[in-house]
Amino acid sequence: MTDSQFDHQAIRSQFPILDMQLGDNPLCYLDTAATSQKPQCVLDAMNEYYVQNNANVHRAAHQLAARATQKYENVRMQVQHFIHAATSQQIIFTHGTTESINMVAHGLTEQFQQGDVILVDGAAHHANIVPWQALAQRTGAKVIPIPLDSNGRIDLTAYDDLLTQLPKLVALSHVTNALGTLNPVNEMVAKANKVGALTLIDGAQAVAHLDIDVESIGCDYYVFSGHKMYGPTGVGILYGKLNALEILTPMLTGGEMIKTVSFNGTSYGELPNRLEAGTPAIAEVIGLGAAISFLSNLPKIQIRQHELHLIQYLQQQLSQLGDISVYGVTTDNDNIGAVAFNLADEHHQDVGILLDQQGVAIRGGHHCAMPLMQSLQIKGCCRASIGVYSNQQDVDRFISALTEVKSILL
Fold it and tell me: Which residues are known to be catalytic?
């Protein structure tokens, strides 16, 4: 799918930051996996809230509060339909994927005991590792990583073997943030369900690229962040099956989540309020709603084909450059959104800095996936990642800049 086959420029033009100049160079943004840029409609929605509807939600009787509450709760229903959840009660607003996972890990403390097994994707983001380690420390449970193959992908045979230990919980990535690996979560969740395990899916890298159907996946929890899907920072989602949410002990308590309070005792409200203490990120939630509208109005089939073409084109161009190691790519060509690589033995930060001097923004580091880096026997790598606004010219500029970097370093 080439840009000429649908009006890609009309999509790209909605992102004002892409017109930025960095010194003598126009911005070439290939770090969408870290955070996506925001379309004008998201910026406008947040500005409108502050200018016309600024009030707290659920509390006051005046018109501003009523309008703010309606807009806020409308987004809850938007999210429900966007991920194909059964009811809006299953949608909990959080500050992001990390908080969502921590809410689950904290909330399940009373459900775990000495010796319980937690299986964690060996390529997971640290946010989907550390909270489970903390849960294990509190309860005496043990965290076991699911082994990876030589491509940094989950070893499904090893996963099957680990399921014989009857884990209490399985935590997976839908798409890994470092390599863009698409995991077979439907199959893996179905197997976990058969042994009675709870399942949590980190969908932060998936929601902007794939059509998410939590009912079809069958997981107990699905989490993601607004800023990975063209929405604001500071807002995220915890989806859960109703019974899986009901067993969570609230991590935060206080205003908004209560039913009654006295010095003789307190009772909590119903879902979703019981897991949403305090004043929420109202403007950010409204911005998330605008981002969902933006994504929902895109030509999904054409965008998916466009992104697949760009990733494959990027992989091909890197392979032809020489002295490049690309990680996590297989013959299936099912990487989503990102390509990880290194230039010979050069440090990834040096490569990233020299690219930045030419206006090209990529990410270099361990990508909050240090166990994965250890499995690949590297300290870190570079990652180029795309979004709906990315085009072939971005890839060409990146390859040209990387060629210049190569001539400097090698």
Answer: 368
